[in-house]
Amino acid sequence: MTTTNVPKPVAAGTDYLDQRTGISNAVKGFARKVFPDHWSFLLGEVALYSFVVLLISGVFLTMFFVPSMGLIEYHGPLSSMNGQLMSEAFASTLKLSFEVRGGLLMRQIHHWAALLFMAAIVVHMMRVFFTGAFRKPRELNWMVGFVLMILGLLAGFTGYSLPDDVLSGNGLRITDGVVKSIPVIGSYLSYMIFGGEFPGEDIIPRLFTMHILVVPALILALIGLHLLFVVLHKHTQYPGGGRTDKNVVGFPLFPVYVAKAGGFFFIVFGVIALMGATMAINNVWNYGPYDPSPVGAGAQPDWYMLFLEGSLRLMPGQTEYVIAGWTLSLNVLIPAVVIPGLLFTFLAVYPFLEAAVTKDKREHHVLDRPRNVPVRTGLGVGFLTAFIILALAGSNDLIATHFHLSINSITWVFRIAFFLAPVAAFWITKRICLGLQRKDRELVLHGHETGRIVRFANGEYIEVHKPLDEQERWLRVGYEANRPLEIAPREDARGVRRKGYAWDRQLQKLSGFFFEDRVEPVTPAELAAAHSHGEHDQLDSGDAHGQLDPVRDGTGHGVVTDERKS
Ligand code: HEM
């Protein structure tokens, strides 16, 4: 018989709940779920916890913020603004900053949490991309995550605009221009969004509803779905001894993971609070209330919007045409709609593109090492390079003033770099990956160099190599090199043309681009041949892909293995 030390009232309460909901089985099952342990799995958690901080600090701000564009004359502790006309929104932001106890701290916590939220989302997305965690069965969860990222951008943009200061007002002015650049419907759309000619009197209350209700509700719902998928699919795991597509090696959710995650939440909260308390951010009183006429140099949006700003700054202005009385503003349409559209579409469809060029229908739960998928890794680095160049271009004025350079030269360098640098980054990354794979082959076959040179009696010299241990060998051979697709011929045996051949041919070309250059993993036969060669001291024989005991995989005590149901 087992005895437990649960206090009576707790036991009674739990029993009461269980008899009415039957929840105990679900809780038990959930508590036993196994989560693999790796620092990169914390990135999604940072996003989650900063969202919680956003909700808590946001509720506080909502109590005091007045979402109105009605004009009032300011009379308050900020003497420099006394007597100035401003919107109630701006005035309430000043009140929050100077009169409400803890208001400035909350504003700053909220803003830093937003920046961290977006940074965590982007880095988490990079982790998922570079390790191939988006492969079957997680393509849908990638899509959910992608929508979350777009919603994150929307949440940031709508919140940033609320104080109605000069900086955010200019951001809204840019938005108005972008919307108006959409052919045919643009000006109607702008009138609809702003409730008339920009800026109108409706936009702040409308943004407020989006910011505190619609967008957070959607984010909350989608985070729920996202995490439900993580639980249903079980987490992926990094390659290593004993880890296969059929099991999960890690710690049980309760108590290990719950304790770790709980502690980590407070660390994230603490860091954001420290940032909010010590690092000033968005001091709107320095900019002043919104007025369409002033706009200063050194005006940048929050970091996650910089790519859009940079894209607009790089586009030559001469590309505006009037056709039959309609204005076609390619100078705005291309940088603000077409380029971000292409970049985001690439991200959204990438898992499906890769599935099409591999024709791989199997489930994947063991992550890829980025080097083992050189083209994917190259494409990811190329994408990031384009993103970083656009973000830097969004600060071309600051780069010019800080480094005493001509803004025109900087703009031209970025224009050229935007087209060339991602291609160069792709190529260099791909070559590095292939080089690392060759190095892996070399290590598996010949072991690590020891620096010990031995001379035989016959005068021959050899260097003694130290064979890899099982864990390391597993890591370096445990991958598959995809090959370009093979397709059925254009015509069948009777000379009848096959339907769908043209499409298959395109896919084949694309898969050639992905997998033509590849380094195959060491096969057991190659390994055995290297052993029998005998030169390389102590190489023990065995199967290169042999089974290892997952519990001895070096991740420490308390590791458990759970089978995946396929
Ligand atoms: C509000 C934003 C987001 C939150 C709070 C969030 C949270 C999480 C958490 C806690 C996990 C489990 C731990 C981990 O693997 O890191 C996870 C997994 C995952 N996330 Fe996100 N995520 C967000 C956005 C995204 C984005 C933008 C993408 C990609 C477009 C994405 C794709 C995935 C995928 C595919 C998994 C499963 C990974 C695996 O099992 O290895 N997530 N997410």
Automatic annotation (TrEMBL):
N-terminal signal peptide = none
Q: Which residue ranges does UniProt annotate as crossing the membrane?
A: 46-72, 109-130, 142-162, 208-232, 253-281, 332-353, 373-392, 412-429
**Record's Pfam families?**
Cytochrom_B_N_2
Can you say where in the cell this protein is located?
A: Cell membrane
| Biased composition range(s): Basic and acidic residues | 532-543, 550-566
> Superkingdom, according to UniProt?
Bacteria
Q: Please name the GO terms of the biological process aspect recorded for this protein, alphabetically.
A: respiratory electron transport chain
**Catalytic activity from the UniProt record:** a quinol + 2 Fe(III)-[cytochrome c](out) = a quinone + 2 Fe(II)-[cytochrome c](out) + 2 H(+)(out)
Task: Give the enzyme class.
Answer: translocase
What's its EC? 7.1.1.8
| Domain Cytochrome b/b6 C-terminal region profile intervals | 240-435
Instruction: Please give the PANTHER family that the UniProt record associates with this protein.
Output: CYTOCHROME B
The name on file for this protein is Cytochrome bc1 complex cytochrome b subunit
Q: Name one GO molecular function term.
A: metal ion binding
Segments forming domain Cytochrome b/b6 N-terminal region profile: 13-239
Cofactor dependence is on: heme
What is any one of the record's Gene Ontology cellular component terms? plasma membrane
